[in-house]
Amino acid sequence: PEADSKPNTSELYFSQYTQPETNSSSNLRASQLPKKLKYLESQCEIEFDQLKFVNRLGEGAFGEVWRGCLWDLDVAIKKLKGNFLRASPLEELADEVALLKSLRHPNCVLFLGFTKPPNFCIITEYLSLGSLRSLLDNPMIRLNSKIIVRIALSIARGMNYLHTQSPAIFHRDLNSHNILCNKNWTIKVADYGLSRTIDSSMEFCGAVPWQAPEVKSGLFLPESDVYSFGVVLWELVTRRLPWQGMIDMQSVQQMVKEGKRPSIPAECPPLLSDLIERCWHQEALNRPSFHEIIEILKPYDKVKSPASSPAISPAIPKGNDLPLDTYLQNY
Fold first, then answer.
1. pTM above 0.70?
2. Which of 115, 182, 311, 315 could be cross-linked to 127 through a Cys-Cys bond (beta carbons 3.0 to 4.6 Å apart)?
3. For residue range 212-253, what is the model confidence (pLDDT) as tens digits?
4. Per the annotation, does 79 bind a ligand?
5. Annotated active-site positions, please?
6. Which CATH class is domain 130-329?
7. Domain 20-125: what homologous superfamily?
8. CB-based contacts of 147-151 (< 8 A; 24+ apart in sequence)
């Protein structure tokens, strides 16, 4: 049937790495990929010795993140810390990870598979431009309000997809470090579902600067992810880290519980400042859903803005402020 002949997302991802090469051995490896792809689709399970760790990209609460290779393909590998693995049968763990494998959305990082404990790893597509945080820290990149809206829309669409699954998937650690970008400037949510797959308790519910006030009381709601989104939107506007300079995270939690928030710049467009305030509202039920956020931002995304729109960012030295498109072309 015609529907069966249409490649799925995984096949599209794999196909970009299977172009013919002059080297016959490379061609042979490429010809074997369809069989391996079928194995991935059906099993979701990868042998640890098939992974090649190239360079370490960073470390988070769950473990180390590496750029790696799987069958000559660029992938991202999250090698998980043993203390975050639940004491559950492998079959149950595999079923939960298989759920992640079934998810398909252009604004969610594509899950490819996992390796068994004790070397438990999550393997996903590799996004070459790295995290949103790294882009915000790059003084060579200018962000105007239109680009900010498009980034925010991409994040909201990915999160709305996760929240509308059955059962719903809550991120519990949404922040600028695990929102990734590829060379085509496609924004994707990463690390979704990891806290659910690895730790279903309240032991870990995100980094404190992005954490909703109700989380400190032991309650995590869908709106808690919306709060984190509001903080990310604030990051897009200011390009700063939330509560930067604060060392004592318990003090930050207490300030948030008392209703205090980072200050929003006066030059922030009202649409964005109003949305930030709604998203990080003290009362969870007064925060919008991700569907509502999409509806709020969509009309603004269609408004044409001149190329000379000022960046909503700290001053950038003259001569170093490349427009985003120019930066990506030179990447």
1. yes
2. 182
3. 999 988 888 999 999 999 999 999 999 999 999 888 999 999
4. yes
5. 173
6. mainly alpha
7. Phosphorylase Kinase; domain 1 (3.30.200.20)
8. 147/324, 148/233, 148/236, 148/237, 148/272, 148/312, 149/271, 149/272, 149/297, 149/300, 149/301, 150/301, 151/187, 151/236
